[in-house]
Amino acid sequence: MDQNLREQVLQRVRAEIISGQSLPGTMYSVPSLAASLGVSSTPVREALLELSRGGLVEPMRNRGFKVVEPTLTELRNLFDMREVLELHAAVLVAANPPRDLPTVRECADQIAKAVETDDVQLYLEADRNYHRDFIAAAGNDLLTDTVMGLRDKMRLYGIRSRAGLERQQASVPEHYRLIELALAGETAALTALLKTHIRSWEPIFVDALLRSREHAREPLLRQARS
Q1: Quick one: pLDDT at residue 131?
Q2: How far, CA to CA in Å, does 158 sit from each of 189, 202, 221, 225?
Q3: Would 224 be classed as within a structural domain?
Q4: In whole angstroms, what is the distance from residue 123 CA to residue 131 CA?
Q5: CA distance 226 to 138
């Protein structure tokens, strides 16, 4: 039971952080979070410790867990590694295509629903599950775990911006097309589309990250002038 609660807490807090809802410096208190969720402190503490191992939060003695601020270099490095590994996984899938990818299709349907209903939380969960199941079809558990670890460290700044919402809409047909190209074994077209699918988010995230830092510096600049 605690394991299920731990996973629920993990998914919720991770979504808050990667979507930018919980900004760098936000503190998560184990007792406060447990009380707000109506659960015991054990699954909450375990979930936050897992997130700290992933680099999203850091433990602060006698205070809780603080959301870590990412750097621009870290963000770009994550995109570089994701591109290399996810394209490799796609090549493996296309080289030995399955008859179908039913769970991946279900995730694509959930993504489409999320965009239609403007449900960013559902989009994040469905998109994560889509890429996990797509990569898993390559049959390499270590590759799947590595890619998902990278994805879970990536902050999706700007996902609720106008550009972010437009990118979500554009991703809907891309998710279905990726499935069809994989099943047809069309490696070149598959990897080209997947590269665009991944990299199209980079300028949105970078721009939003830079804007958030400028916004955070404004009070300090005003204090320095006064």
Answers
A1: 97
A2: 28, 10, 24, 30
A3: no
A4: 12
A5: 59
- Over the range 12-25, which residues count as b (16 or more CB within 10 Å of their CB) and which as e? ebbbbbbbbebebe
* C-beta contacts of 172-177 below 8 A and 24+ residues apart: 172/108, 172/111, 172/112, 172/115, 175/107, 175/108, 175/111, 175/112, 175/130, 176/105, 176/108
- Of 75, 169, 57, the C-alpha closest to 123 is 169
Instruction: Please state the rounded mean pLDDT for residues 221-225.
Output: 45
Burial status of residue 54 (CB atoms within 10 A of its CB: 0-12, 13-18, 19 or more): middle
Q: Structural domain of residue 41, as residue ranges?
A: 2-67
Cα distance between residue 194 and residue 131, in whole Å: 11
Residue 226 inside a domain? The answer is no
Determine the Cα–Cα distance for residues 77 and 83; give it in Å rounded to an integer.
10
61 and 110 housed in the same domain: no
Residue 225 falls inside a structural domain: no
Give the tens place of pLDDT for each residue, 122-146.
998 999 999 999 999 999 999 999 9
Both tokens assigned to 191: 């990897």
DSSP character at residue 201: T
